[in-house]
Please model this.
Amino acid sequence: MNTISSEAKVGLFVLAGLIILGYMSFKVGQKGFSFEKGYNVQVMFDNVAGLSPDASVQIAGVEVGRVESISLKNGRALVELRINPSVRVERDAQASLKTKGILGEKYIEIKPGTPASGYLRSGDEIGRVERQADIDRLLNQMALIADDIKAVTGSLSSVLGSKQGERSLGDIVENTRELTENMNRVVAENQASLRILIENTRQLTENLNRMVATNDPKINETIDNLRAATAAMEKTFASLQSVSQSLESGEGTMGQLIKDKTMATKLNQAVASLQEVTDKINQGKGTIGKLVNDDETVKNLNEGLAGINRYINKAEEFRTHLSYRGEYLFRSNDAKHVLDVRIQPKEDKFYLLGVVSDPRGKRTVKDYTTGTPPATTTVEEYDRSSLLFNAQIGKRFRNVVFRGGIIESTGGFAVDYLTLNDKLKLSFEAFDFAADHRPHFTGRAEYQILKHLYLTGGWDDFASKEGNSSPFAGFAIRFEDEDLKYLLTSTPIPK
Model:
């Protein structure tokens, strides 16, 4: 019985392996196992140099298909792709031509789109294509750049190769070293200042952030106001457009003026009449003509207008204040009332007129002669029914006010000090100077709690030896009379 030798068995096994390997290589090289079925999509490229049929089609580095065919259509490359039926490509997907490495084979890369755009069907075209770089053009540009670099290095070599170039280069290095040392020294000397500067910058940034956060509602309100203004402007433009259309159609007086020739004729006649009147005025005819051409009349009119203008300006500067002050004297258990009118023609100058109702009344000194032989007796009396008067003039110097004149029907002076934006006033008054008794000294503090209401308190006649000294407290009401100042302002009469 004939048996197959070992050499024959090895030969048959190798032959079968070669046949199977050849068949598999043919099948994989043609279509591959996975892409004999699927659906075809198309994509147009400007240039597909290096791309071969059966090239890989990938999404995110995963092979999902192969290049079916490559053809020319209208001067561009039409590439048909066969996609795995289990893979769905969005309609807004993007195709691009890629290369594996620098000199590797080329393949098609598909960047997925959004599912909301839908999916491609067999025969559809990928509309979005990423333009690929042209390697030949890049190489040509790199060659030009290399030539430019060569020219520059040649110039540098010619400049720096000589002894003068070496010295210049050494000077540059030395200057750079000195500059670096100077910068290090400046930074070291000003290190504390730099820290302060950085801290100030940080605080400024925090303040700006806090300011933006605080005013964020105001910014939103401003934006809303701008929107409202824009809406109002749109309404205005619509109204203007409506008016323009009315004018075009001849509606209204302006429309008739534009469209109606009779109206235009009447307007020309009116203009001619105005021209005639103007000529008469220029010739000095009539009242208006004399007014325009007579220098004396114009001079008198200008002086009258100047007087009116001075009157208006003076009235604007003129201010009048009315005030009432009530003070309760604790030791006499009675009240003192003061009513003042303050006339202020300037910011730092004023006149003060007023009446005072003092429970002690007006002090008088009388001499009585009695007995035999006659003897003279001096008696100090007070008239409680009489009113006292104030007539003072004042001048302000910054926060200090000096007053002088008649204070409670006697001569005297006063000093006021104002602070806290004029809300607090400290006053000292001295009046009723006589040889038989001490002067009347009063210290007072007045504080504004409301717009027209003030609280007042102090010590009246605190140097008195007759028992008239008394602490007091009360209130004051003060307001500006806008109507009275025009009555008190005199009208200048032109000469």
About this structure: The first helix runs from residue 6 to 30. The longest strand covers residues 334-346. The mean pLDDT is 81.
